[in-house]
Amino acid sequence: MDFITFCACGKPVDETFIYCPWCGKQNRDHDDKDVLENVFSQLEEKQANDRISRVKKIESKIEALEKELGLLSKLSGK
Ligand SMILES: [Zn+2]
Question: How far is the centre of ligand 1, averaged over its atoms, from the C-alpha of 56 (Å)?
Fold first, then answer.
């Protein structure tokens, strides 16, 4: 089975091809690294967004809890 790699132009290219059939760029070394860095930075961005939305959910839960606790302490305080 042949391995597929991705060119810097974003197209899938058979790893045995030295030149990208889509854009004609040489499909080796630093190009691969650039693509990997792109993929990783996109992943990091997605993970950061996921984390932010998770934190926001937790914050709203805490707010709701605080309201409930406030009600409870008011009730028990009297
Ligand atoms: Zn290409």
Answer: 40
The whole domain housing 22 covers 4-77
Its pTM surpasses 0.70: no
Q: What is the pLDDT of residues 23-65, one digit of tens each?
A: 988 876 556 677 788 888 889 999 999 999 999 999 999 999 9
Instruction: Please count the residues of the chain.
Output: 78
Structural domains of the chain, count: 1
26 and 19 in contact (C-beta within 8 Å)?
yes
How far does residue 38's CA lie from ligand 1's centre (Å)?
A: 14
